[in-house]
Amino acid sequence: MTVTLADVAARAQVSPATVSRVLNGNYPVASSTRERVLRAVDELDYVLNGPASSLAAATSDLVGILVNDIADPFFGIMAAAIQSEIGGPGGRAGGERLGVVCNTGGSPERELTYLTLLQRQRAAAVVLTGGAIEDTAHAGAVAAKLRKLHEAGTRVVLCGRPPAPEAPEAIALTFDNRGGGRQLTEHLIGLGHRRLGYIAGPEERTTTRHRLEGHRAALDAHGIEDDPRRTVHGRYDRRSGYEATLELLRRDPSLTAVVAANDTVALGACAALRDSGLRIPGDVSVAGFDDLPFSIDVVPALTTVRLPLTEAGARAGRIAMGREEPPPGGIATVRGELMVRGSTGVPRT
Amino acid sequence: MTVTLADVAARAQVSPATVSRVLNGNYPVASSTRERVLRAVDELDYVLNGPASSLAAATSDLVGILVNDIADPFFGIMAAAIQSEIGGPGGRAGGERLGVVCNTGGSPERELTYLTLLQRQRAAAVVLTGGAIEDTAHAGAVAAKLRKLHEAGTRVVLCGRPPAPEAPEAIALTFDNRGGGRQLTEHLIGLGHRRLGYIAGPEERTTTRHRLEGHRAALDAHGIEDDPRRTVHGRYDRRSGYEATLELLRRDPSLTAVVAANDTVALGACAALRDSGLRIPGDVSVAGFDDLPFSIDVVPALTTVRLPLTEAGARAGRIAMGREEPPPGGIATVRGELMVRGSTGVPRT
DNA sequence: TCTTGCATAGAAAGCGCTTGCTGTCACGTT
DNA sequence: AACGTGACAGCAAGCGCTTTCTATGCAAGA
Question: Which residues form the HTH lacI-type domain (chains A, B) (predicted)?
Answer without folding.
Answer: 3-57
